């Protein structure tokens, strides 16, 4: 069957209102008013909070609806950060969260919304994670504090029904351990999102570049996922073209930044649905490398994506939708396009070029990647064994 054939599908996806364009941040206050929200807690990290140009724009958009800036999130996304955000939200009586920046702030705000709705303390949540492995959403979705994200990175984690968090829990021997957990459910999708390219331009270039590769790969992977639909084929194809054109010049040209931001909106549209995600093998490798070496996902993807794509093609995965998206004739030409974008972003072409990565951790990265749950969304018939994963990582090294 040709990849251009359209198999039957059900596309059940209800995103929040998507606001895109230069200056759209000015509309965020009106969006809160339309939903009868009076006070917002901005949730972000300290670097974002120190970005005066960005925070002034967000503050001007919110006006007197801005209750406070909670600058307590970190890339580690710790459960205690969400609990502290709840404490501030309760103290201030806010009825909206405005996460600003990258995926860490959004995930922390999402978990905070769940904890607040359920009235869970930090210790109670930790106990639930130990007992169940996750955090349940509230029985009544109306009790959630709605989210109005203002993304400023290109990882594309915004239109999502899941949020990950790290929790320090009792290890059963009197000590503690850090475990990855999270929440998931269609009710967690943000209420409205504001993609203002001018705000992305305030983000440091290095941060943008790493996040861009992550968002780019979301579009790429959607084109060969077993859960691809005609809808995600269309949005991902357009995303690949916009990102391939926009990413290399985005820090030098406003029109290129506009394309990059629009591309990442399309890259994530519909890829995160309950039980039907489209990200798969490349992200599984990213998780393995993150766990083994603690490196940022975009750097991991930059080094491993070409080799993962080549291995999938060798295993018989149909990548014709990808070649069509890049408007090239062969898989190798499509891979060359991925490498061109990577190189233009100044990202590492090999794992050995990334600080902290050494051959000694390759086996652990391969083990984690081969066991990653995202592989259940890979192309039908594709089976990534630990040996296969090790071969890809060794080629990327």
SSE diagram, text form:
Layout: E1 17-20, H1 28-34, E2 40-45, H2 46-49, H3 52-62, E3 66-73, H4 79-92, E4 96-101, H5 103-118, H6 122-132, E5 150-151, E6 162-170, E7 176-184, E8 192-195, H7 197-200, H8 205-222, H9 230-246, H10 254-267, H11 281-293, H12 297-314, H13 320-326, H14 331-344, H15 362-370, H16 386-396
Can you tell me about this structure?
The chain is of the alpha/beta class. It has helices spanning 28-34, 46-49, 52-62, 79-92, 103-118, 122-132, 197-200, 205-222, 230-246, 254-267, 281-293, 297-314, 320-326, 331-344, 362-370, 386-396, and strands at 17-20, 40-45, 66-73, 96-101, 150-151, 162-170, 176-184, 192-195. The strands form three sheets. A four-stranded parallel sheet has the order 3-2-4-5, with helices on both faces. A hairpin with a 5-residue loop joins strand 6 (162-170) and strand 7 (176-184). Helix 4 packs across helix 5, helix 12 crosses helix 16 and helix 15 (362-370) crosses helix 16 (386-396). The protein starts with 16 loop residues before the first strand and ends with a helix.
